[in-house]
Amino acid sequence: MRPVDVLDSYRDYLQYERRYSLRTVVAYGRDVRRFFDEVYPGEEVDACVLGVSSRDVRMWAMRLSQGGMSSRSVNRCLSSLRSFYEYVRLSQGLEFNPVSSVSRMRVDRPLPSYFRQEEVQRLLARENYTDDYEGHLDRLILLSLYGLGVRRAELVGLRWGDVDLAQASVRVLGKGNKERIIPLIPELVAELEAFRERVELTFGAGVSSKAAIFVREDGRVLGGGDVYRRVNAHYARLTGGSCSGPHALRHSFATHMLEEGADISTIKALLGHATLKSTQVYTHTDIGLLKAAYRGSHPRSRNDKPGGRAEGEA
């Protein structure tokens, strides 16, 4: 196999064997390609891929950092290159991985931005949304981000077939194509039912199980950027400020459940984190004892909370 073909086969390996999302595969390939373009400009990849040294990698990372790239982004590039060379080592018989001895850059992890519970109540108050298709769509977006704790890419990927309203649960496909099941709070069940009826009325047909949930009135499926802009627009209208978009609602989901007593391992599973380390950042708040699971903890799952529904209410 020509070394120039290794990058293509590496992408296939990530997509079909490791089952990474296409977005991740493209990102890894882009980082690896950048390394060769910048370290060996004008040279064919097959002429240098097997001759890369740890010093080459270390100096490249230093140049990226000095050029203004954040430590987190430099580490992502190193991770991509490390993964690529591990594949080359195993498939090409390379003696050692030149990236394995290169240390990651130190990252001071900032506390995630999130909304206070009273801010969420204001953000989701029904009177802040128009009583038309787009108004219902916007509220469903924000309520879903907060009620499910999903990433925006996961949100826009949801199909009606992923939702089981009878069982009050939704199937989410996360990073690495890993599937998880998230319970639906009663308010979100009702909102989804109402929106499905509105969709069917608008388009004059029943929804297909393969149809995207988050669709504009003109039939266009929303993308991640659309969701980001809609969340920020509602927050700005209410407060005059700006926020970190949909991820602030995901952080709020985790923070508020921990404040209400949810076990951190439960939060890890609901967020789709691969390791507990990713979830532990949410212990920035005084959470006391971590005992309760999802339904007893989510602040909008109980009938005594604003926006909740009494038993028997539609």
Describe this structure in words.
- The structure is a single chain.
- The protein is mostly helical and 314 residues long.
- It folds into two domains: 90 residues, Orthogonal Bundle (DNA polymerase, domain 1), CATH 1.10.150.130; 131 residues, hpI Integrase, Chain A, CATH 1.10.443.10.
- 51% of the residues lie in helices and 4% in strands.
- It has 13 helices and three strands; from the N terminus they run H-H-H-H-H-H-H-E-E-E-H-H-H-H-H-H.
- Strands 1-2-3 form a three-stranded antiparallel β-sheet, with no helix packed on it.
- A hairpin with a 5-residue loop joins strand 2 and strand 3.
- Helix 1 packs antiparallel against helix 2, helix 2 crosses helix 4 and helix 6 runs antiparallel to helix 8.
- The longest helix is centred in the first third of the chain and has 22 residues.
- The N and C termini lie far apart (63 Å).
Radius of gyration: 23 Å
Assign the CATH topology of the largest domain.
hpI Integrase, Chain A
- Helicity range of the residues? 40-55%
Report how far apart the termini are.
63 Å
Averaging pLDDT over every residue, what do you get? 85
Name the CATH architecture of the largest domain.
Orthogonal Bundle
Query: Which CATH C-level class of the largest domain is it?
Result: Mainly Alpha
CATH superfamily (homologous) name of the largest domain:
Intergrase catalytic core
Structural class: mainly alpha
Q: What general outline do the C-alpha atoms trace?
A: elongated
Number of strands: 3
Strand-helix topology:
Elements: H1 3-17, H2 22-39, H3 54-66, H4 71-92, H5 117-124, H6 133-148, H7 152-156, E1 163-164, E2 169-173, E3 179-183, H8 186-203, H9 224-239, H10 246-259, H11 264-271, H12 276-279, H13 294-297
Antiparallel strand pairs: 1-2, 2-3
